[in-house]
Structures are given as C-alpha cells and as structure tokens.
Amino acid sequence: MVDRRKLAAGNWKMNGLGAELAEIDALAAAHKDPSCDILICPPATLIERMVRRADGSAISVGGQDCHPATSGAHTGDISAAMLADAGADHVILGHSERRTDHGETDAGVRVKAEAAIAAGLVAIVCVGETLGEREAGETLAVVGRQVAGSVPDGATGASLVLAYEPVWAIGTGKVPTMDQIAEVHDFIRSALAERVGEAEAGAVRLLYGGSVKPGNADEIFAVSNVDGALVGGASLKAADLGGIIAALERAAG
Ligand code: 13P
User: Fold this and answer.
1) Which domains does the chain have, with CATH numbers?
2) 31 catalytic, yes or no?
C-alpha cells in the first residue's frame, strides 16, 4: 500500500486583495505541524506576497493556471517558470471554470501540465462532468477521456495531483453521494494506471473538489481513493479551511 500524504488545497479563484493575506497568518498559526500538506492557490497578484507571508510555515503556494510556453508574446499570460520564480510550487490546470471561460481542451491542459512539470511545479489537473453528462450516464466516459487527454506522459506521484471536481457540485452546495465519489475516484485510479503505469498511478494523490465544507469533510475523506480536497469558497477563511484540514488529519490517522 502506497503512503500518499494527504493534501488540503485551497483555490481562491478570482478572490483576494492584500488585506486577505491575514487569513494566511491565522492558518499558519493554527496548523504549525500538520500531518497533511496544505496549499493555497491565490490569484497571481498575491502569489509572491503570500509566499513571503507563509515563509517558515507549513503552507505552500500555487498558481491557478500557466501558459505552455516559457516566455514570449502572450499578453496577459503567465508561464510556469514565472510561477516558480514567484515562489509557487504547484499550479492548478484545466479547472472547469477555465475549460468553460477560456475554452481549454484536454490537449491544451496536457501541454500546460508538461510545461509546469518541466518548470519543477506539481501540476494539479482537474477533471469532472457537467450535470447533463451525469444525467446522461456519461460521467465515467467523460472523466476517462479527460484523464487520458490531460495527463502528460511520464507524470509521477511527485509531479502530478488529480482533482475530481463535478462541475455541478462547484459552488452549489451540492455534493455527490459518497458512492458516486468512490466510483469516480476508483475509476480515475485505474484510468491513470493505463496512462502512467500502475506504480505511479498508485502514488498520485486524488483530490475531491466541489462544495467541500468542514461539515461534510469527514464523510468525504473516508471515501476510498480520496487523498484530500480542492476547496474553493471554504478556503477563503482560515477557520473554514482549518476545519477541513482537521478532518483530513483525522482521516490520516
Ligand atoms: P467550491 O469549494 O467553492 O465548491 O469550489 C470548488 C472548486 O472549484 C475548487 O477548485
């Protein structure tokens, strides 16, 4: 049995000004020696300040997207090397909001993930079905296609994290049943094995994301193949994310 250290990851999305960095102080003070990893992905404007603020704490900092190129004429974009230079060590890629708002495709996510890994970042690749796809019975087909298309060759447990985020559960307060989460996470583990081999697939951490709160975290973290959470709204407040971290630490035993 592979020992996958659990990961509590916060995605601040397009939220947070300098004043909100106080949440990082509170989070760092409350979780000095956690038995899981803690990651916050703020907007790009806060990365460097958050890295400085979190220095010496258990909190690492990540980006929410990167461009596949190292540098060049791409106005408004940020490269993986730039994120690393700012002190980030992870980057979220292919989040459903980017797939929807920016037309990101599996192939596009894959080249971004390759660039991220080449720059020394851990790529957190997001997959998940829409409500229509679930109701049509297409969940596993959609997620399987996303895993096959978005995960780069040679990804390892050290370079890749996979997040299952059903689109209909994001920001809605709706959560799949625990059986539904288990079904998809077990399926992702085997789809990953086909993509990167059994050994590395067994080392990749699989996060669940979509309306995770302190009140439902224990139940979610007890599900097979759930190695942590990618948290949106509840990651903006140290107390809420702290409740989720505490649940993850209980699950870690
Ligand atoms: P919520 O936790 O706000 O539902 O967002 C989940 C998410 O999209 C994390 O990336």
Assistant:
1) 7-252 (3.20.20.70)
2) no
